[in-house]
Amino acid sequence: MARLVIVSNRVPAPRERKQLAGGLAVGLQDAIKGRDTLWFGWSGATGTETSKEATIDRSGKVEFATIDLSAADYHGFYRGFSNAMLWPLLHSRVGLAEFRRTDLETYQQVNRTFAVALQKLLRPDDLVWVHDYHLIPLGAELRRLKVTSKLGFFLHVPFPPPAVFDTLPKGAELAKSFSAYDLVGMQTKEDAGFLEATLAAYGVTAQIGTYPIGINPESFATAARRADGGPDARRLVQSLGGRALILGVDRLDYSKGLPQRFEGFAKLLKNFPQHRKSVTFLQVAPVSRGDVAQYRALRRELDGLAGRINGEHADFDWAPLRYLTRSVARNTLAGFHRIARVGLVTPLRDGMNLVAKEYVAAQNPEDPGALVLSRFAGAAAEMEGAILVNPYDPDEIAEGLHLALAMDGEERRARWAQMYEAIGRNTAAKWAKGFLKDLEE
Ligand code: ADP
Ligand code: F6P
Predict the structure, then answer these.
(1) Which of 33, 131, 146, 416 could be joined to 368 by an S-S link, Cβ 3.0–4.6 Å?
(2) Is-contact 184 156, C-beta < 8 A?
(3) Is the pTM of this model over 0.90?
């Protein structure tokens, strides 16, 4: 079997390598199990210079090769072009995008540096799999260095309609670099169609396929069962005092629709007063990319909203909204999902959204909760049993919440069974196997 080479900007930190967490890392865990693997990317550290050669260390069968970025490269490549330009653009949020020619140049330069450092470690029969928007030009840079290995690319985030992508200065060049890959994987048919149409508009083609990412449902269900009844879950249940829990779990990112979600919860309290004092909404949203201006502005907005909603609706013995910007351990969260009567997942746009799948996996099959899900998350295409809402409309979110809270056990079980079947159809293991099989062929 050929060696697998994974390339992603974010590489699990040494202390996380035994138990991987987070969408991309969890998805890849099954792909690398028992396989000779090299995982290449950024170390997460910034120094005075970007390293020319990778630092190698090993954990089981996986070799990790990472490079540090200089402060200037971190600003231009990661904070600038990747997260202040490409992230909003790919989520169709042109108004939030910030373009600087110098950031684009740094992005291209860092991709070149990655390629040079990686090329030194490659063997001709390696299977190279590049991940996400930080590294779109990496394949073309590797080809320039005469790398002949099979090269695959997977985009974890959505792709916008061609007219939106066309607003990107020098977009044609970036689009053309997709054609250096033997296979380009997208989350949904819609994303694949938009990429194909965009490339066609620039006169380029690529082999594009749809590979919806998933989780490992059994292992998440086991984690949830174990955590339920543990000390943190017990404390949470006790603090609820018999009220139903609505749970949101996201990185603090403007693609997740958090202000509209907070407003939607406030509308529930206002428009459906029968739920007042019988529900609590817990939103866990650890700070992400906190040095990008748009993310800081979102945090300020949410701080204000949370204060206003609690100020308006709380009583001396009840606060309707609990809002945490620190992270909570993955296993603890699994238990919280199981306790929650409603999973509230309302991104304005999302490549897939694994939290929705984790909520389903964590439920007690005898008495499952209901999922209120944005119809603009990639996961919506698979989740017929979810209550689908337009995440831009707080009134519709409130209606969805009301429906979820009022739903009887029989309907909850039927909807959950459909969703559990769906997350078992597209697991992380199947996603990786399917992509790698097509790449090899
Ligand atoms: P994204 O990749 O945009 O962050 P996903 O929902 O696809 O969104 O994947 C996020 C992953 O990170 C999931 O596995 C989820 O459990 C984890 N995660 C998200 N938010 C948190 C949080 N607040 N605390 C801990 N883990 C989180
Ligand atoms: O899934 C999208 C993604 O951007 C991954 O590529 C990334 O590792 C994750 O979200 C977290 O973001 P960041 O690496 O910027 O902290």
Answers:
(1) 416
(2) no
(3) yes
